[in-house]
Specification:
Elements: H1 3-15, H2 18-24, H3 29-43, E1 48-51, E2 54-57, H4 59-84, E3 92-97, H5 103-115, E4 120-124, H6 129-137, E5 143-147, E6 156-169, E7 181-183, H7 184-188, E8 192-194, H8 200-211, E9 218-221, H9 225-233, E10 239-242, E11 253-258, E12 262-269, H10 276-299
Parallel strand pairs: 3-4, 3-5, 7-11, 8-9
Antiparallel strand pairs: 1-2, 5-12, 6-10, 6-11, 6-12
Helix pairs in contact: 1-2, 1-3, 1-4, 2-3, 5-10
Length: 301
């Protein structure tokens, strides 16, 4: 068994696709498939179910991913410790982020890669906020981009900015004319595509609507944000999105919701000393969001 095989196992588990996993670990798809097949042969178990809809873990695969993650985490901790002897120019940073965060996060990562090309980045976007905090608490990841208004008390946070919610409407759907803003009551009457009941994001959405004296009209429940955007474009219904979203599907229109629902977003990590590369990443993120706020304030004058 080799470390690269474990990286392939985790990549396929996280991306649900051999093609996407191969791109994530910088291998060709045949090379990644061979690594997984070799691992299955060594363990004498089937790790993935393969179907037209994608790739999912078998019970054996689910059982093995946890120790595989722990092994990779231990290795990366060793690499980070060694890297700390050499400053920021080496090592790895493990970043976890919400699936709905948009442009600013990608820009921070791009700027960091340009400034510190020798530092490896591993990025994951779990389904829920609780998974984000669990991955930081366990040490599996170093730092998170998260909504920090409800951050548990045993984490260190650094506020980056404030996010507002907006509505995305399907092409040709103008139930309220050409208004650029909608009230919460108006949004509540739209057929919405929302996360499933019980999902943390859904519970937060339900609380917001309840605070404004209305309830949601959940026409479709869907946990995957990317496919939700596809359904909005196809005319299935409207959805809620962070106002910072960078890629609005063709024909889809964004409407601000008033009064604005503001949520603080920021960086989250475990208390204590951070590796130099993580400290540098934090500083760059704070700098980038400060410049972003300045640019927006100037454009709104």
């Amino acid at each position: 068994m080799e470390i690269q095989q474990l990286r392939c196992l985790i990549a396929v588990a996280e991306h649900g696709s051999f093609t996407k996993a191969a791109a994530a670990v910088h291998l060709t798809q045949p090379s990644l498939s061979h690594a997984v097949a070799k691992l299955e042969s060594e363990f004498r178990v089937k790790l993935f179910y393969r179907s037209a809809r994608g790739v999912t873990l078998t019970p054996a695969g689910k059982l093995l991913t946890k120790p595989a993650r722990q092994a990779l985490s231990a290795l990366e901790n060793i690499e980070s410790t060694v890297a700390s002897l050499h400053g920021v120019t080496a090592g790895a940073i493990r970043i976890v982020t919400s699936r709905t965060f948009a442009t600013p996060i990608a820009e921070v990562i791009s700027a960091f890669r340009e400034r510190y090309p020798e530092v490896r980045l591993r990025i994951n976007s779990p389904q829920s906020e609780s998974d984000i905090y669990a991955s930081i608490s366990s040490g599996e990841y170093d730092i998170a981009f998260a909504r920090i208004d409800r951050t548990p008390p045993d984490f260190a946070t650094q506020i980056l900015g404030v996010e507002t919610l907006a509505a995305l409407l399907p092409p040709g759907n103008e139930p309220y004319g050409n208004h650029t803003e909608l009230t919460w009551a108006q949004v509540s009457r739209l057929p919405l595509i929302l996360p499933p009941a019980g999902n943390q994001a859904r519970m937060a959405i339900d609380r917001v609507f309840a605070a404004h004296g209305v309830s949601v009209n959940a026409a479709v429940e869907n946990e995957d944000y990317a496919s939700t955007l596809d359904m909005v474009r196809a005319g299935v219904g409207a959805c809620l999105t962070p106002g910072t979203i960078s890629r609005i599907p063709a024909g889809v229109r964004m409407k601000a919701i008033v009064p604005a629902q503001r949520t603080r977003i920021g960086l989250v990590h475990r208390p204590g000393q951070l590796a130099p590369a993580v400290v540098a990443f934090n500083a760059l993120a704070v700098e980038h969001f400060r410049e972003l706020r300045t640019t927006r304030a100037t454009s709104e004058r």
